[in-house]
Amino acid sequence: AQSVTQPDIHITVSEGASLELRCNYSYGATPYLFWYVQSPGQGLQLLLKYFSGDTLVQGIKGFEAEFKRSQSSFNLRKPSVHWSDAAEYFCAVGPNQGGKLIFGQGTELSVKP
Amino acid sequence: EAGVAQSPRYKIIEKRQSVAFWCNPISGHATLYWYQQILGQGPKLLIQFQNNGVVDDSQLPKDRFSAERLKGVDSTLKIQPAKLEDSAVYLCASSLWGAETQYFGPGTRLLVL
Predict the structure, then answer these.
(1) How many CB atoms lie within 10 A of CB A73?
(2) Is A89 in contact with B92 (CB distance < 8 Å)?
(3) Do B56 and A99 lie within an 8 Å CB cutoff?
(4) What pLDDT is attached to residue A83?
């Protein structure tokens, strides 16, 4: 079965602290992996994506993610969180030539001053 | 470059009424998607169009939901009659033909009373 699991529903970090959001997936074929961010009342903005090559990918806003095939994981990281990073983050998996994206349930990030 | 446009942004209706949402994709994007995002969940695909043809509508509740993309550009999603459980955000996304990256609109937030 194709699925994406984000184990953490809600995470709170202090501004300036590091962040790691977890994502595990189950997918039959070689997938594309994505991280999207959704601010309140907004659509989804693509942070980064991975298909092949270097397993550490860089995205916008200082985010990066690491693909680990052996663990079926694609965790999102940021070295120093800013208050403006507070939002909901979605991990997704999809086919390599376009098609249905399967999303996790999301992780809500709160940032403490 | 203009993004994906959706309207209306918000809609409140009573159960058993009908409602329609409109989406205009990014210019040149052949593929258009409608996703349903229920509160606390990740988006789930309802229907995928390639130009004006349906590629995947396996998750569309066809007894009450319909969608069309007559000229291969903008699209309309309709619900008739609406049920309480249809309260959700309806997201439209588009991509280039065969491309893996989907670009999302701001969504239409529907509340069914």
Answers:
(1) 17
(2) no
(3) yes
(4) 96
Return the HEC string of B35-54: EEECCCCCCEEEEEEECCEE
- Whether the per-residue pLDDT at B81 is higher than 70: the answer is yes
Amino acid (1-letter code) at residue A101: L
* Local confidence band at A84 (pLDDT 50, 70, 90 cut-offs): very high
A46 exposure class (CB count in 10 Å sphere: 0-12, 13-18, 19+):
middle
Chain length of chain A: 113
H or E element, residue B71: none
Taking the C-alpha atoms of residue B62 and residue A14, their distance in angstroms, rounded to an integer, is 46
pLDDT at A30: 79
B107 touches chain A (CB under 8 A): yes
Distance CA B27, CA B96 (A): 9
Task: Give residue B96's Cα distance to chain centre.
Answer: 17
Per CB-CB distance under 8 Å, the chain B contacts of A108 are none
pLDDT-wise least confident of A77-81, A106-110, B2-6, B11-15: B2-6
DSSP annotation of B105: -
B99: three-class secondary structure by DSSP? coil
Question: Is A39 in a helix, a strand, or coil?
Answer: coil
Contact predicate A81/A18, CB 8 Å: yes
3-state SS, residue B13: strand
Q: Which of B41, B56, B109 sits opposite A100 (nearest CB)?
A: B56
Q: Which pLDDT band holds residue A110 (cuts at 50, 70, 90)?
A: very high
